[in-house]
Structure formats: C-alpha cells, structure tokens
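User: Hi! I have a protein structure encoded as tokens and I'd like to know what sequence might fold into it. I'm fairly new to this, so please keep things simple.
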C-alpha cells in the first residue's frame, strides 16, 4: 500500500523540481506522467500475480486460486483485479479523454482523473485483497491502502473541479 503511494509523492516532488528548472508547465508534465502510469501499474500487478504476492482474501468464488505462499485456501486473484482496473481501464479512460481538445486545454485535469480513478480502484480492490500482515485492518475498518488513497482522492477532486485557469 505504501510503496505506490510513496512513489506518487516522490514523483510529484521530483516533477516539481524538474519542471521548475526547465520552465515546463507542471500541469501538462503531470498529465503526461499520469497517462503513462497505468501501463506501469498493469505490468506491475501482472508481475505481482506471477510472483504469487499481494494475493486476495480467502474465498469460494469459481475463479479463486491457491497461491503457494497463501496457504492451502483458495483466494481472490486481487492482483488481476488491480491490473484490470488501475491498469487497463484507467489507461483506456485517460487515453479517450486525452483525445479531446477541451481536456488537453485543462492542464492537470488528466492527473486529477488518474488520481480519482486510481484511488477509487484501489479502495475497491482492497475489499478483496489480503490486508498487510503487519498492519491488518486499521481505524474505521479501512486498510492502509484505503487510508492512503483518501489524500489521492481529495487531490484528484481538486484537480478535476478547480477553475479552468489554474495550471
């Protein structure tokens, strides 16, 4: 949960420094990063699946799988859910939106859509994912991944609904 969310903070900080030094509009730069990130998420979640890590909760659904490190019980292949939602679906949505000139003329909007889409997908998939063993379920019955998605959701809402002129 914390790895990706921390990565977003690191990329944002590095991007802010890079764009300031190069006099590149940060909103447009962030949109390019946001539109390409789902491909990395897709590949990363497929790698998690192949490695048998970050598996889901025990279940009896027909497509449940037994993961070698997950014990004998069948589990949700939550890595594939994340690959589909955070990777494939989010990429398709961002690509379709990026083809609209009105969207391209709103720097930061695609970044906001990415943050909204990622945080919503992550919070949803966490319902099927096995919580981190050392953390478990935290306050209000939320996992660490869900808690860390809240600031991303708020940032996404800000970027999508802010007034048009603020790049």
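Assistant: Happy to help. Inverse folding works backwards from shape to sequence: for each of the 167 positions I chose a residue that suits the local structure. Here it is:
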């Amino acid at each position: 949960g914390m790895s990706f969310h921390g990565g977003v903070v690191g990329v944002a900080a590095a991007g802010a420094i890079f764009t300031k030094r190069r006099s590149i509009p940060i909103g447009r730069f962030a949109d390019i990063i946001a539109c390409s990130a789902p491909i990395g998420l897709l590949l990363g979640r497929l790698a998690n699946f192949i490695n048998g890590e970050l598996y889901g909760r025990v279940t009896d659904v027909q497509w449940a799988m037994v993961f070698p490190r997950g014990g004998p019980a069948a589990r949700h292949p939550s890595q594939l859910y994340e690959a589909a939602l955070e990777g494939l679906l989010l990429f398709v949505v961002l690509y379709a939106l990026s083809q609209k000139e009105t969207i391209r003329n709103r720097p930061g909007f695609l970044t906001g859509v990415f943050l909204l889409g990622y945080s919503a997908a992550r919070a949803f998939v966490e319902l099927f994912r096995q919580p981190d063993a050392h953390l478990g379920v935290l306050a209000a019955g939320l996992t660490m991944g869900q808690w860390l998605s809240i600031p991303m959701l708020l940032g996404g809402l800000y970027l999508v609904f802010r007034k048009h002129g603020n790049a």
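A useful reference point when you look it over: The first strand starts at residue 65 and ends at 66. Feel free to ask if any position seems puzzling.
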